[in-house]
Design goal:
The complex is a heterodimer. By secondary structure, chain A is α+β, with helices and mostly antiparallel strands. Chain A is 28% helix and 23% strand. In chain A, strands 11, 12, 13, 14, 15, 16 and 17 form a seven-stranded mixed β-sheet that branches. A four-stranded mixed β-sheet of chain A has the order 1-10-9-8, with helices on one face. Chain A has a four-stranded antiparallel β-sheet with strand order 4-5-7-6, covered by helices on one side. Chain B is built from 13 helices and no strands. Chain B has helices at 2-29, 34-39, 45-54, 61-73, 87-122, 127-141, 144-158, 174-208, 211-218, 223-253, 255-260, 266-275, 279-307. Classes of the chains: A alpha+beta, B mainly alpha.
Chain lengths: 496, 315
């Protein structure tokens, strides 16, 4: 009665101990990538979750254009394109000999199908706005797609390189969520729900030298301590964006790992409700900016990782203007500005914080800093769903902290119904001109103007660019250091 | 026995019906629009409306309740909002981790606790007894997530004998799958074993004081025979109850350990579904957990009746 369970347990223990530890040893053909979040599904054209892009971008799915590691637009499924002088007609020359993973061929009809689907009435594309300017898609021959816009859109080629604009086939579009079929160098192998997604080499890829790896495994580990353990036990080869920022020094000190801190598109801001008193007064907003010490927030909430920003723009992009010196940390100046605005004794406000660490820790630091200037904050931590409902959609908040992770999303300040309620005719005029401008230097200049207006108006308090805290085993090359779009593009990754 | 079973089964159905009402009502008042959560901060109103219609969120509340319960009765658990697959498939995948994990933990726990408890009871007041009691104190006092982290640091990071966590799936073979479950099962089993050893000791000591044990001894039966024939049989009743409760608890309560070992179990599915407002998954998983707990209790009751066949009094 008592011996049988004992025997079974002993047998199990023995079986476990005898199994080779090398079960986790890596061959040079295989890569295990750790990610914080599991994607809900694998169809990038039907969801906003960055985790979808981090598995599928460029690996499984391709778009007309492609964003490379530096954030530049390069050829994708289209090998070249021409833009008409009025900026309205884009003629894409498509690559010949491209096939989907299920063997069906790729041609211009797929481009028309994918773009029409994304902008259709019942589309659930999270970036439907990318396709809003499209008037029609013509297919004069199988390797030519002509997209005509109803208004010029300077951002069009970049947007067409995003994963939301992935070219999917009519045969597989409906089942891409679970069984993604794309044209990329890897094809989908299997998904162990809650644990991993496995991709394998697509032998039919048009370039036989790509990819260099035979198998890529994406493993989903949300707990920061577990992430560190998985890295140190060798289960995972790379964490392109590790959540355990505090463990970076430990990994940095270990020579078997390489730590590479890069940039992302995430502008982290202390958002102020411009539509609500007292933040409708620019003097109050400037006072808040003077009261915040950015570097202390970066040190305290991010362990020193993160690039300070002075406006809503990523420092690595063309057109960036350094405006971080506009409101130096100065509590006395903040008090003076508050008094001028009619708040000699400061005021009370609520800061609603979503779950990410940068927001929760950052919020506490900022509350302490604002207290020095007489602004008394009550901290209210929230889960994502209520935050989206109440703060983002309901616009019921005084202050909040959030990272805006879409690339080049400065245009949100031109949306009249956006949650922080900023309004400026000057800014709107710049955005209007920007959307009609295609010439790169002029665009950069306009982006500079836009940044200056936001900073002068102190529309929000601009804190820092979210870092991409990457760590990988020494000997692995070709991973993206920066994250110009959410992606783990492993097409060029190999072991030394 | 038949009447007893019938009464239990009716109670089971009633419990599940009440659970369904409570779960549905609670989720109705929970804030957070699942469609908005899926589309993120760039959602446009027309896209949002399209998605809400696709998810059936625009139908009236009673219609949604009846559709849900009707589906469950017909064996259809609906389709997950976020994953876009039948919830039945998700739950089946997760049960394939959680049930073996709980079973393995209980197996390890009873294998350790029963002998320890018996040894302590038969050497009452001697060093062996104090040793078992000290182990039991320690086992109850150590938080299991912390013990799990220690095991990982020692056996995975240090010695490299085990993966730090994860689950390769049963398709990878029984060996690797069981190996992945072993450390978490040990972690879970420690607390359970500590409690169970204590219960076993107390239960055996209680029984040892009974008249029929004294009678058996007086008849000249040896200590081994007394233990087997008279003590164990009666002491097993409270032990069975506790093991049943522990198993039911592990089925739903393993979530912390599932997080430490990043195991794709039922508890983590529920946790993720709540944060993603995947309400259909939340409802279904809670119902599955309720059904499992109720079923385990039923089995315990039946076992109880088998171990002690004396007629039951008023229920």
């Amino acid at each position: 009665m008592k011996s049988s369970p004992l025997l079974i347990a002993a047998a199990l223990l023995a079986a476990g101990a005898l199994m080779p530890a090398g079960a986790s040893a890596q061959t040079r053909d295989r890569l295990v990538i750790g990610m914080q979040l599991e994607p809900p599904h694998l169809d990038p054209t039907a969801g906003a979750a960055a985790a979808i892009d981090e598995v599928t971008y460029s690996n499984l799915f391709e778009s007309l254009t492609r964003i490379d590691a530096r954030g530049e637009v390069v050829p994708g499924l289209a090998e070249s394109w021409e833009i008409s002088p009025d900026g309205l007609t884009y003629t894409f020359k498509l690559r010949p000999g491209v096939t989907y993973h299920d063997g069906t061929g790729f041609d211009s009809s797929d481009v028309r199908f994918a773009l029409d689907r994304a902008r259709g009435a019942d589309s659930v594309n999270a970036q439907k706005g990318y396709f809003a300017a499209i008037g029609s898609v013509e297919t004069p021959d199988p390797l030519t797609a002509v997209v005509t816009l109803t208004r010029p859109d300077g951002q069009f080629l970049f947007n067409m390189g995003s994963n939301d604009a992935a070219i999917v086939a009519p045969e597989s579009a409906a089942t891409n969520r679970q069984k993604p079929v794309g044209t990329g160098p890897f094809r989908f192998d299997r998904w162990v729900s809650g644990d991993r997604v496995v991709l394998v080499r697509n032998p039919g890829f048009r370039d036989p030298a790509v990819p260099k790896l035979g198998e890529v495994v994406f493993r989903f580990i949300s707990d920061p301590a577990a992430q560190l353990n998985a890295m140190r036990s060798g289960d995972v080869d790379a964490f392109p964006n590790i959540g355990a920022t505090e463990s970076l020094p430990v990994l940095e000190a270990d020579r078997s790992f390489t730590v590479a801190v890069g940039t992302t598109e995430g502008e982290t801001v202390l958002a102020l409700n411009n539509a609500r008193k007292p933040f409708d007064d620019v003097r109050v907003r400037r006072a808040v900016a003077h009261a915040v010490n950015r570097q202390d927030v970066i040190d305290g909430a991010m362990f020193g990782y993160g690039t300070p920003i002075g406006s809503h723009f990523a420092p690595h992009r063309a057109g960036y203007v350094d405006l971080t010196g506009l409101y130096p940390h100065d509590p006395a100046k903040a008090r003076a500005l508050l008094a001028e605005a009619g708040y000699p004794d400061g005021f009370d406000a609520v800061i609603r914080l979503p779950p990410p660490v940068y927001a929760r820790r950052g919020g506490e630091i900022i509350a302490a800093q604002l207290a020095e200037a007489g602004i008394r904050l009550r901290i209210e931590p929230m889960e994502w769903a209520p935050w989206l409902e109440q703060v983002f959609r309901g616009r019921d908040f005084d202050m909040t902290i959030v990272s805006h992770v879409e690339p080049l999303d400065i245009d949100v300040y031109d949306r009249p119904d956006y949650y922080f309620g900023y309004r400026s005719e000057r800014f709107g005029a710049v955005m209007d001109e920007l959307s009609r401008t295609v010439e790169p230097d002029r665009r950069a200049a306009l982006y500079g103007d836009a940044q200056r207006i936001l900073a002068e108006d102190s529309a929000n308090v601009f804190l820092f660019q979210l870092p991409k805290a990457g760590v990988h085993k020494a000997g692995l090359t070709g991973l993206w250091e920066n994250s110009p779009v959410p992606a783990n593009d492993v097409t060029a990754v190999s072991w030394k | 026995m038949t009447g007893f079973l019938a009464r239990r089964l009716v109670g089971l159905g009633l419990t599940l019906f009440l659970a369904s009402l409570v779960v549905f009502t609670v989720l109705e008042v929970l804030p957070g629009d699942p469609a908005l959560l899926m589309l993120g901060v760039d959602a446009r109103p027309d896209t949002l409306a399209a998605l809400r219609a696709q998810m059936g969120l625009d139908r009236p509340v009673p219609v949604r309740y009846l559709a849900w319960v009707g589906g469950l009765l017909g064996g259809d658990m609906g389709v997950s909002h976020t994953y876009g697959v039948p919830v039945g498939d998700l739950v089946r995948d997760r049960l394939a981790v959680t049930v073996p994990l709980a079973a393995l933990a209980i197996l390890l726990s009873t294998a350790v606790a029963l002998p320890l408890g018996m040894a302590a009871a038969s050497r009452r007041g001697r060093p062996a007894d104090y040793g078992v009691m000290a182990f039991s104190q320690l086992g109850v006092a150590i938080p299991n997530f912390w013990f799990g982290i220690l095991l990982v640091l020692w056996l995975s990071v240090g010695l490299g004998w085990f993966d730090a966590g994860g689950f390769p799936g049963w398709s990878a073979g029984a060996g690797p799958a069981l190996k992945a479950l072993l450390l978490p099962a040990l972690t879970l089993g420690l607390t359970e074993a500590a409690i169970l050893a204590r219960i076993t000791r107390a239960s055996i000591l209680d029984t040892l004081g009974e008249d029929y044990v004294r009678t058996a001894r007086a008849k000249g039966l040896g200590p081994g025979a007394v233990m087997r024939r008279h003590v164990l049989r009666n002491a097993l009743i409270p032990i069975t109850t506790i093991v049943g409760l522990q198993f039911a608890f592990l089925l739903g309560g393993a979530i912390v350990v599932e997080n430490v070992f990043f195991l794709p179990g039922l508890g983590r599915l529920l946790f993720q579904a709540i944060s993603q407002r995947d309400l259909i998954v939340v409802k279904d998983v809670v119902m599955v957990m309720a059904a499992l707990v109720v079923a385990v209790n039923l089995i315990v009751d039946v076992l109880y009746a088998v171990i002690d066949p004396r007629p039951k009094g008023v229920p």
